[in-house]
Amino acid sequence: MRPRIKICGLTRPEDARDAARLGADAIGLVFYDKSPRNVDIAAARAVIAALPPFVSVVALFVNPARERVDEILAAVAVDILQFHGEETPEFCASFHRPYLKAVRVKPGVDLVEWADRYKNARGLLADAFVEGAHGGTGATFDWRLIPDNLPIPLILSGGLTPDNVADAVRRVRPAAVDVSSGVEAGKGIKDAERMRAFIQGVTDGSL
């Protein structure tokens, strides 16, 4: 069974339609005003309205105020929360929604310790560490830093592209993969051919 596939940082309904048509299992909406892929509520609703049934919607936050998460949950049909900052396990779990916790990986980061700390998360998302950034950088990290005994599912992110994702899947065997910049024509603008090639790469790496 191939890993689940999330296309993150969508800003346009047409990209959501393409992602779903090509086989993405989930799409990600960024609610972080410092990101070039940030969307407001109206744009988020338009993206979601373009999706067929059974494609999950993930809302991404970075150190949000509680009121901001509550505002999005009240206005947008979100299935899963994704936290990319320094949010505590208690904060992440307090919204009573499935959530993912992102960890920026570099030498010395203990992913088993992180997974144990966020044991109620639906998955641990391993991203590349880039000083001052919270994802979407296009940077990769050394996949050898990922242990094979994580107690919760691993979502591999960080610099994945159509060119390297098959190798990543073969080597890491993640439960899911997450891509943003690797399938873009420009920041927040997805390229249908790159999405197609990425999803094919995930399938090829699973064989």
Structure, described:
The strands form two sheets. This protein has an eight-stranded parallel beta barrel, surrounded by four helices. A two-stranded antiparallel ribbon has the order 9-10. The mean pLDDT is 95. The protein has seven helices and ten strands. It has a single domain, classed as Alpha-Beta Barrel (TIM Barrel). The chain is an alpha/beta fold. It has helices at 13-22, 41-49, 66-75, 89-93, 111-117, 165-172, 192-206; strands spanning 4-7, 26-30, 56-61, 80-83, 99-105, 123-128, 154-156, 176-179, 184-186, 189-190. Helices cover 31% and strands 21% of the residues. This is N-(5'-phosphoribosyl)anthranilate isomerase. InterPro entries: Aldolase_TIM, PRAI_dom, RibuloseP-bd_barrel, TrpF_fam. One of its GO terms (biological process) is L-tryptophan biosynthetic process. One of its GO terms (molecular function) is phosphoribosylanthranilate isomerase activity. It catalyses: N-(5-phospho-beta-D-ribosyl)anthranilate = 1-(2-carboxyphenylamino)-1-deoxy-D-ribulose 5-phosphate.
